[in-house]
Amino acid sequence: MSGTEATGDTSFAGVPDAFQRLWTPHRMAYIQAGPQVLRDDCPFCAAPTKSDVDGLIVARGRTAYVLLNLFPYNSGHLLVCPYRHVATYDQATAEEVAEIGELTQIGMRVLREVSRCDGFNLGMNQGAVAGAGVDEHLHQHIVPRWRADSNFFPIIGRTKALPQLLGDVREALSAAWP
Q: Among 26, 85, 137, 139, which one carries the catalytic annotation?
């Protein structure tokens, strides 16, 4: 008989309690790097120079590519970026705009198939004042949404629950990409 069973004390680690645990190990990279990581190098210029796995790249096109957001709002949150380092949509070429649109459509279809999402938030924040975390490099957000994906975490706890690891999501989406 263990000490816990003998004493009836249930306050030790590993003993079931009323709390659910939210494990987000992928966030340690951001916590350890701090805000400097986005100031030193453009992550959207660096990603295509890495392997698809290391860069979280789901698909590569001629002028643009698709990758997972390292700090997603929801599981499967994709970004569509031109390879060229341009800050705003009006600086993109007609070819880049067309391919960003095409990759966005494909990304939506793949997310719908793989994650069974009910809808999407699409958008581009142009400039820091508009909320762009990386305002020097154009990127389109594709955020999958489900009917019941909103709860108190983001509102009260400023926390987002993500049920899948980034590597697993990248692998599933990449495998389903036509």
A: 139
